[in-house]
Predict the structure of DNA-binding transcriptional LysR family regulator.
Amino acid sequence: MKQFEFTTLKLFLAVADGGSLTTAADKCNIAIAALSKRISDLEASAGTRFFERRARGMSLTPAGRALLQHAREIIYGVERMQSDLLLYSRGIHGLLRIAATASAVAEFLPQELRSFSDAHPEVAIDLTEGTSQKVVEAVLDGRADLGIFLEPVAGNGLVTFPYRRDELCVVVPRGHHLTAQARVRFAETLVYGHIGTETQSSLSQKLMAEGGVDYRVRIRVGSVDAACRMVHAGLGICIAPRLIVENYRDCFSIALVGLDEPWAARQMLVGARSKQGLSGAARAFLRRCVGAGAAQPQRHSPGPIGRAAAAEVSCAAKDLSHEAKHKGPPPSYDPVFPHEDPETTHE
């Protein structure tokens, strides 16, 4: 078997992602005939077919799916190396790549990133936003070092730690009938028109699954901020993370009502493909995230989805309490990287 060329692997990845030679050729600025020959030569070299040629495009064979995973690792690894070296040439020592959900970006990450940047000003940060599923995919593909997402994402394949907890609430106009109760069931809200967010978000998927045909979205918007503005205007109610919408209570004429459902309690996780492959910057930030989650006050019962996570958080919280009291590392284990300096960021 001949050695695979890096350029050929990039072309293979473009065809796999685009689903056709035409799309990949346009993206890579190469003639279709030349691209087709590259793929055919790649298959001949490996002694197996990577694509099924169909009238409407090309789909991966089992061998192609196996190569796809390795190709992504190689390509993103080389691109990460190039990015790191470019940063070093500019006097920046390290790059931290994070993928996170919109709720994590809006609620917790700004203060986490601020404290990390203050401690490690030499590290550049690349933050991307997406749904929980997209965040997990970014980490698995090697496009992000760490991902912050909501539990559960089935079969995510990552090493995960508890990060932060939040709860969903009902956002209504001030003076709304639902404000007469401290907490309401989700079914009680279905008689009112809802303001929904993007359909691919984990929250929208959950609400549609729980409400079924009775869940009526009057207006769909792209963010919690926009949803609160719609509620303020009297156009409906919405379900949203409490820690986000609390920031809007003084700006808009809205009120928050507790949501009396077991799934209203949400556990965020921070995950990586493996602890061993993380850069020094990613290791330091992961440790900081786990510590922040452990120190977060418990605002509600974690419920079935969070009991195991809460137990680990509790253990980490005891370690942090000991460290704060004695101004040194606790004698118990580090829940993330045992026996390592917690502030080390070098490779």
In short: The mean pLDDT is 82. The first strand starts at residue 51 and ends at 54. Residues 195 and 238 are 5 Å apart (CA to CA). The chain has three domains: 6-78, 91-164+267-326, 167-265.
